[in-house]
Amino acid sequence: MSAQREMKEKNPWHTPVTIIFTVIGVIAIVALVTVAVLQNRPLPQKYKYGIVLDAGSSHTALYIYEWPAEKDNNTGRVEQTHSCKVKGPGISSYASVPRKAGESLSECMQEARQRVPEKRHSETPLYLGATAGMRLLNLENSLASDKVFQAVEEALQKFPFSFQGARILSGQEEGAFGWVTVNYLDDRLKQSLETRGALDLGGASTQISFVSDDFDGSESPDNGVAFRLYGNDYNLYTHSFLCYGKDQALRMTLAKQTQSGPVSISDPCFNPGYIETKNYSIVYDSPCVSNMKPQGAPATFTHTGKGNFSQCQEVVKRNFNFKQCKYSQCSFNGVFQPRLQGPFGAFSAYYFVMNFLNLADTSIPLEAVTEKLSRYCATPWNQIKQQHPGVKLKYLAEYCFSGTYIITLLTEGYNFTSQNYPNIKFIKKIKGSDAGWTLGYMLNLTNMIPAEAPDSPPLPHAGYVSIVTVIAILLFVLFILSLRPLWPRCSKQPQII
Ligand SMILES: Nc1ccn([C@@H]2O[C@H](COP(=O)(O)OP(=O)(O)OP(=O)(O)O)[C@@H](O)[C@H]2O)c(=O)n1
Ligand SMILES: [Ca+2]
Predict the structure, then answer these.
(1) At which positions is ATP bound (predicted)?
(2) In the chain, which end has fewer C-beta atoms inside a 10 angstrom radius, N or C?
(3) What is the pLDDT of residues 229-255, one digit of tens each?
(4) Which of 352, 356, 426 to mutate to test the pocket of ligand 1 (most atoms within 8 A of CB)?
(5) Co-location of 130 and 194 in the same domain
């Protein structure tokens, strides 16, 4: 009798039992893993949307944001999916025809209506925030600014979104929300990393915001914004300089050069060969310079360029007052500023200008930047026009001034040095979303950044599935081993029949 037969006779049921247990075991494991995977599979995504209109001094832009409907609270999840630049100037330029301020928005709003899925329209919040252009108009003529807002609100209410109002942001809000945007997109808030300061240069105002160990808000409470985000406390320093956006700074610089009401000026901030007739009434038509308008000046002056960086820097510097400072330290105009700290992101006109001048790379030493800028300013206007046929002449004419202004503002104004200049990064977008105050503004108004860190599952989905699978296989192996006494005994002896 063979050994096999002998065994079968001893345990006549052992083979079917082993087979049955094995099959049940395999089925159980497959079922367990399948249930675990299916139960924890990410559900098909549904999205929510938010729309913010940035009514700046020079133009209005519309941004659409999108985030997964189930996870409003998770950082880094809100993304900009679309932006639309409104044709024409900023809404404050429509002071004499407010109706047109509203009408100007309709093209971008129609785009938004198409981009946001129809079934989400009614629940999609729509905000309009106006910055320094409307701040200035409000100072100059508050009735006119009210009328612009009325026209804009009427136009926006015609769209199917959930309109949440149009208002002027304070300088602090503009600075602080720019900082929130940059650090949210960088994922620095949730991960409790060192934050990045925000530098925003607009047409009519400019903002600086950063966290400094020196600053707890006590020395100058107006410059402090306290946040509690994801369980961390931040004492943010922020300041907005009205009139120090690049368009208003240019007006101030022109005003400095036309104090005596001359018929012509030779401007070091414009390229040699540049010549343009300008109206006194237009240059001085802003609260930033209106009190400097020379008496008895002619109607126009001839504005010619002489392209000299260092002379331009001297004129630009005259816009900053370094004399009085009642605090431990100041930037300029008697404004408190703590010690600069950490990395910085510089966006809006900082980026447009430095990118145009091929100076967006801050590993270029500051000395080389001024050298390049000097050469750019000294380049004849005709040559500049030939080299950049696609660029708007208004922008093109101003790059020598703008570059000089930016370097002067950063070094003389904010006290950046050759050592910490490389800490600045000129940026336009972070992970596909524009750097600016709009995202931070929406995150705040929709309560999308919690004060406390949200609870998250201890394991990510993939980790969970892997562990369940490994444990199931381990249990199965142990189970099979436990049946060992029932295994057929293997014999290497030749079978004897
Ligand atoms: N490609 C571009 C686009 C814009 N600009 C200039 O950059 C400046 C600022 O633009 P922006 O940041 O859009 O300013 P606003 O938001 O309109 O102004 P504010 O924030 O002061 O209200 C303006 O002088 C504009 O002419 C530029 O030089 N090059
Ligand atoms: Ca702006």
Answers:
(1) 203-207
(2) C
(3) 999 999 999 999 999 999 999 999 999
(4) 352
(5) no
Residue 322 CA to residue 399 CA, distance in Å, equals 25
Catalytic (active site) residue 174: yes
| The residue type at 194 | E
**Cβ contact 102:110 at 8 Å:** no
- Express each pLDDT in 346-403 by its tens digit: 999 999 999 999 999 999 999 999 999 999 999 999 999 999 999 999 999 999 999 9
Is residue 83 domain-shared with residue 114, that is, in the same domain? yes
Binding site membership of 395 for ligand 1 (Cβ less than 6 Å) = yes
The CATH number given to whatever domain includes residue 176 is 3.30.420.150
Closest atom of ligand 1 to CA, residue 402? 28
Q: Are residues 356 and 385 in the same domain?
A: yes
Q: Is the confidence metric ipTM above 0.90 for this complex?
A: yes
**Total structural domains in the chain?**
3
Burial class (CB in 10 A: 0-12, 13-18, 19+), 200: buried
57 lines ligand 1 (CB under 6 A): yes
What is the identity of the amino acid at 441? Y
> Does residue 208 share a domain with residue 90?
no
Q: Is the same domain home to 280 and 234?
A: yes
